[in-house]
Amino acid sequence: MDKFTQHTGVAVPLRRSNVDTDQIIPAVYLKRITRTGFEDGLFASWRKDPGFVLNQQVYSSGTILVPGPDFGTGSSREHAVWALQNYGFKVVIGSRFGEIFRNNSGKAGLLVATVAQEVVEELWEFIEANPGTKLSVDLPSRAITAGDRSHHFEIDDYTAHRLLNGLDDIAMTLQHADQIEAYESRRPSFKPKTIPVLVSD
Amino acid sequence: MGRTLSEKVWADHVVRSADGEPDLLYIDLHLCHEVTSPQAYEGLRLADRVVRRPDLTLATEDHNTPTWDIDKPIAEPTSRKQIEALRRNTADFGVPIHSLGDKDQGVVHIIGPQLGLTQPGMTIVCGDSHTSTHGAFGALAFGIGTSEVEHVLATQTLQQARLKTMAVTIDGVLPAGVTSKDLVLKLISMVGTGGGAGYVAEYRGSTIDAMSMEARMTICNMSIEWGAKAGMIAPDETTFAYLEGRPNAPQGAEWDAALEYWRTLCTDDDAVFDREVFIDATLLTPFVTWGTNPGQGVGLGDKVPAPESFNDEVARNAAQRALEYMDLRAGTPMREIAIDTVFLGSCTNGRIEDLRQAAEVLRGRRVADGLRMLVVPGSARVRQQAMDEGLDRIFTDAGAEWRFAGCSMCLGMNPDQLAPGERSASTSNRNFEGRQGKGGRTHLVSPAVAAATAVAGHLAAPADL
């Protein structure tokens, strides 16, 4: 995972609530077996509408998405995160997120910055008054700069630490292989195993 | 202070705990399917890693698979490629798989319980948000993303921050014709799609105690639809009776040891939940959705609500958008909404009891002219059992299509899809825009309402027929 410290880019206001991961990328686009190439599926049905925000020239190179509450609810598909990243997004700023989406973002290196809904409203107004404006997002100070205003955002300490250092979760966990082995040695023997394969009658 | 059920299961799986870090939890069972796993196996290959515990991992094919002509090659090339990737990956890494055509193939959340692999007190994950289904057995079960799938494959553990606890207490006898699906749809409409964010829920109370395992699984399945990380139900005699004798259930002395442990898996009397919700089951009616998220629901006897009736601006705007997408007018009685397609199936309502409930309604009746009804068993085993009971004949005699097992029309990534503008009554779990096919419109319903709707041609309960 790439390190994330600071990002400045064009902000895109997405004035919709409950944007579930089926809207971020419909299931029919999930059939790739790579982590790349999902940008075509991003908001696929909405992008057919010429009035959709990403179809406006001024926002088409956006890298910071500012959606309404409950963004990324529903399906666990990490493809939703990849689609946003493949398109070019680095940061999503919102007031509430689906838990699995937030988790997936942290694992894949997309910064999810949580602010109060009032801040989202203020950012929407600021962006729409200055279309194409750039916001700056600074992870060490947890600050979003919009014009001459600065807003604090929330992120859990551990995810911030991992993003700042671009850490590989699996390598970190495998450093504790001895503890995993110790746990396995005391697991009850009645816990089920999938091998040998047992089938119903 | 006492502990809640989820806290007990959590504590029993902590491999490592350190200040400022999420706990490292051991995973007892990892289920895989074709859509969310290819990039994870590829990641293992690139890093020269192995699957740590293939004997705690099981794969099946369900999301992409067709529900007809399953003996022929999958026609759609990208779907076929994804299935082939899963078969190659599981073969390369030694992971057991139930492929299309296998007698134990099926929707991943149907086959775990059916095989007896899903047991109380386990941690179970899958790259699928409806993994919460397994919580009905008193397991801590939740959906994960592909990066986490790779992590579990490589380490058999997961880094997980502690969750808050919520009790959802449901008391009283459900009125006739009201099912656990109606109950959970009502709950979601009460708390909203984000109401459970950050929580693991425990469903409890006399209504839950009286439910079958199938009904409990339907409720736990939809925990994610109100934002809860997981939903659990304490195991009891109903749970133990369901498990005993299943292929992967413990036997003999192992069964006794397991049972002794399972009986400790309940919330202590003096445990405190972070939040509590109460529902009076006796007041419930059949419940259906009118909008484009599972929280936008009303009683079947109610009308499509007016956006202005919502106090909150966000909810008002969402309702406005939903009515436009669904092509509905505020004030229309739900029962007057005409339906084109009825879908009976999915990990929410594709189990044998669901098929029995629908068959009971359809027995001796016909599906309305011009309406199509798909009956899709959740697994090959459920399909066989239904045929042994003669349910397939009831469905086909009524004019419904009797399909092979899979996720089918729950999500639009296999051949079973709605056409643009087509309206469905569906026993699945999501009414999102385009979920069942681009431009398709979905009303979430129980199996009984689905069957009655198929006969009536519009949203209806069995009592209306």
Protein described:
- Chain A is 30% helix and 17% strand.
- With 201 residues, chain A is of the alpha/beta class.
- Chain B has 465 residues and is an alpha/beta fold.
- Chain B has a five-stranded parallel β-sheet. Chain B has a five-stranded parallel β-sheet with strand order 17-16-15-18-19, with helices on one face.
- In chain B, a hairpin with a 7-residue loop joins strand 13 (287-289) and strand 14.
- In chain B, helix 2 packs across helix 5 and helix 13 (352-362) crosses helix 15.
- The longest helix of chain B has 17 residues, at 77-93.
- Chain B is globular, with a radius of gyration of 21 Å.
- The model of chain B has no long low-confidence stretch (mean pLDDT 97).
- Classes of the chains: A alpha/beta (201), B alpha/beta (465).
- Chains A and B meet through helix 3, helix 6 and helix 7 of A and helix 2, helix 3, helix 5, helix 10 and helix 11 of B.
